[in-house]
Amino acid sequence: MTFEQYKSVVRGKLPPARITREERGYLTAYEEFFKVEWLLTKLKITSFVTYAPAVDAAWLRAYSEDCLKTAIKTSPGLPRGWQNGVVSCAVAASERVSPDAAAFASARPSKHYSAFEYPAVFDLSNGRLLFYRGSIAWGSLYEGFLRNYMEYHFGA
Predict the structure, then answer these.
(1) In terms of C-beta density within 10 A (0-12 exposed, 13-18 middle, 19 or more buried), how is residue 130 classed?
(2) Could you identify which of 50, 67, 135, 143 might form a hypothetical disulfide with 90, taking C-beta atoms 3.0 to 4.6 angstroms apart as the criterion?
(3) Which residue, 125, 141, 134, 137, is CA-closest to 55?
């Protein structure tokens, strides 16, 4: 699968009105979700999809941190923690994913105040999406929803 094909698949799963930026190697989308069972909180999800010729753990860590900062800075409405949380889905697509990048993407993400950082790698050579699928104690209320969101929107 090429990156353009992958980006087309992802674009097809996101409502067109939610795509905020699209360039050759870059796609950004923003969505908000509110559920009563989340104790009346709102999740503000900013998704970033980019291409890299090769991905290693250091590159993925820096990319994910930058995406989280951008998501926090650009989320509209009340500040995070005031009945809402920010989610950053930082997806890097590549044909060459190093073992340490795969391990980093599959490891428990860093903890943040009312923000969730989801680094992920889509391996274009085998069609696998790698991200943390375990439980997050500080976000257990949302974990099933976020896992399904990642699998649906960024899986092939």
Answers:
(1) buried
(2) 67
(3) 125
